[in-house]
Design a protein that fits this description.
The protein is built from 16 helices and two strands. By secondary structure, the chain is mainly alpha-helical. It has one domain (about 10-225, about 305-385). The chain is globular. The chain starts with 7 loop residues before the first helix and ends with a helix. The mean pLDDT is about 90.
């Protein structure tokens, strides 16, 4: 068993994306993507997935003339080490008490290594949050003096969030939400203009990166429309499957659940095909069908649905307590600061939604792990200060 194990099919799809570029001189087109049914044909790269890694990894591989598998391993490990280092730097810059520094260091290394060992797009759920929480959880100190270095850091925060979101959607949204909530609701800066200015500095790189990715998507879409008839079989709108995941997540409890007896992609595809046999997988129409079926399930089996949600929430609560660890003592010992509740609470709730709406698999909850672990660090810091 390999220590750093990206999903084998994902690696094959990266190789197909590189093959597609070599054939068409256009990124985000894959050739011979067997895992997505594209044997010996051109199809959209990263079909049904977030496309960032299907751009960056083939680009690095092509530019440096390196094997895709090597680049894949390097890509995820390097990003993990960057975020761990960034988190430790923020910890030792802004946190002061020895117990908090010890707890924070251990939490960062353990959670960071968990993410690195996963070495897949899911890693970004935990790594981006981990890298930025230690800086922005001390927002009062961070904003005490606004100088050119801090302005650059604000823009860097947006750059990291934007990059992360292209690899795994919403993997950086949690930290942007936490920053925005605390920044807007608390008077760390006297003038509202400066609050708005900081948010714009963070948001601008996010929007810029999204815009550039959209341009590449449009270019690849136009190429496929003009040179192939693949649009008859594949949706070319780069739709990310949301309701596909939500529907199969209804199979989290198999007891008395004939519609979705287990959380598997198979049952989402099967249900969509039952409604419309010729529906294109993961298209907007496909997603609309599963959205309707999701709410039909809720309507037809309300008590089972409630049991499913509470079962998922129970496991999420376990993960929260586990990674909070000794911080649980200080959670009840301290008089909690309202800004701490808002900053960490918004991130914890947001990350919990991935487990509630799909399934509470640990790979979806790495952001929750990061927020929970570093909440413990913040509580210890507040107690000993």
């Amino acid at each position: 068993m390999k220590l750093f194990q990206t999903m084998p099919c994902r690696v094959k799809s990266y190789e197909a994306a590189l093959n597609g570029f070599e054939k068409t001189d256009t990124y985000l087109i894959a050739f011979n993507d067997i895992c997505n049914g594209g044997k010996e044909i051109l199809i959209p790269a990263g079909y049904t997935d977030y496309v960032g890694s299907f751009l960056y990894i083939p680009y690095i591989s092509n530019t440096l003339n390196l094997n895709v598998e090597i680049v894949t391993t390097f890509f995820y490990i390097f990003y993990g080490l960057i975020c761990i280092s960034l988190s430790l730097l923020g910890l030792y810059r802004f946190y002061e008490t020895k117990p908090a520094l010890i707890h924070g260091t251990l939490s960062i290394i353990v959670i960071g290594l968990i993410c690195i060992f996963i070495s897949d797009t899911y890693s970004f759920y935990g790594l981006t949050s981990l890298g930025l929480i230690t800086w922005w959880s001390k927002i009062k100190i961070l904003l005490k003096k606004i100088d050119s270095k801090r302005l650059i850091f604000f823009a860097f925060t947006g750059l990291l969030i934007g990059f992360s979101n292209t690899v795994r959607g919403n993997s950086g949204t949690d930290i942007f939400l936490s920053i925005s909530c605390v920044l807007i609701l608390y008077s760390y800066i006297n003038r509202s203009f400066y609050k708005f200015y900081i948010i714009i500095l963070i948001l601008a790189p996010i929007l810029f990166i999204n815009y550039q990715i959209d341009l590449l998507k449009n270019k690849s879409r136009n190429y496929l429309i003009e040179n192939t008839d693949v649009q008859k079989v594949y949706d070319l709108n780069f739709v990310r499957a949301i309701w596909h995941n939500a529907y199969y997540g209804l199979g989290y409890l198999s007891i008395n659940n004939e519609d979705v007896p287990e959380p598997s992609d198979t049952y989402s595809v099967k249900k969509a095909k039952e409604i419309k046999p010729d529906v294109i997988y993961y298209s907007k129409e496909y997603e609309k069908i599963l959205k309707n079926e999701y709410f039909n399930f809720v309507k037809n089996y309300p008590f089972l649905y409630i049991k499913i949600i509470f079962s998922k929430a129970g496991l999420i609560l376990f993960y929260f307590v586990f990674f909070l660890n000794i911080g649980i003592y200080f959670l009840f010992k301290n008089k909690l600061k309202s800004e701490t509740i808002l900053f960490f609470g918004s991130g914890i709730i947001f990350n919990s939604l991935f487990g509630i709406l799909a399934e509470p698999d640990y790979t979806y909850l790495l952001g929750l792990f990061a927020y929970s672990g570093l909440l413990g660090t913040k509580l210890i810091e507040d107690y000993f200060q």
